[in-house]
Inverse folding.
């Protein structure tokens, strides 16, 4: 099993581990900053925030934004899609060369965007072209740490955001 954790929580954990280790080596009591909020407090706040009315508003918003979207991209694959989705998959990593990344960063600067925006748009174009679709949905993780009180807190705050990319025109 893998420990599911966002990058910021990993950084916080390592910082605290190093501070505790140094204190132990130096024979002094460990002193970590006092937390203003615990993860259980965040969970309780989120539970209160997600009232039935707010859930209804969010559901209506996303139904409107995703109306008419394809249920799945029909990509050419080496085997047929299973009748029942299994969620089994794999990860493929491929480093991008420096010239490509530099070019993408330059494009991002020229268009007032970010490197993420350029790469997400490029992925959507490739997927749309392969599937023959001008409407592509991408799922991307977002940090979910919109409050300053959460910055020093280790916890899984990640959520998934749907990016709908219209490729027509």
């Amino acid at each position: 099993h893998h420990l599911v954790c966002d990058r910021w929580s990993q950084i916080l954990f390592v910082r605290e581990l190093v501070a505790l280790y140094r204190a132990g080596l130096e024979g002094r009591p460990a002193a970590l900053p006092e937390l203003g909020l615990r993860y259980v407090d965040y969970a309780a706040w989120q539970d209160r925030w997600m009232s039935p009315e707010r859930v209804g508003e969010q559901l209506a918003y996303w139904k409107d934004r995703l109306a008419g979207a394809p249920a799945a991209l029909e990509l050419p694959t080496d085997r047929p899609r299973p009748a029942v989705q299994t969620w089994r998959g794999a990860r493929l990593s491929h480093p991008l060369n420096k010239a490509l990344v530099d070019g993408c960063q330059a494009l991002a600067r020229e268009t007032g965007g970010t490197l993420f925006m350029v790469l997400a748009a490029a992925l959507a174009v490739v997927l749309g072209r392969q599937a023959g679709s001008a409407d592509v949905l991408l799922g991307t993780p977002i940090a979910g740490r919109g409050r300053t009180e959460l910055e020093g807190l280790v916890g899984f705050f990640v959520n998934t955001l749907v990016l709908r990319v219209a490729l027509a025109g």
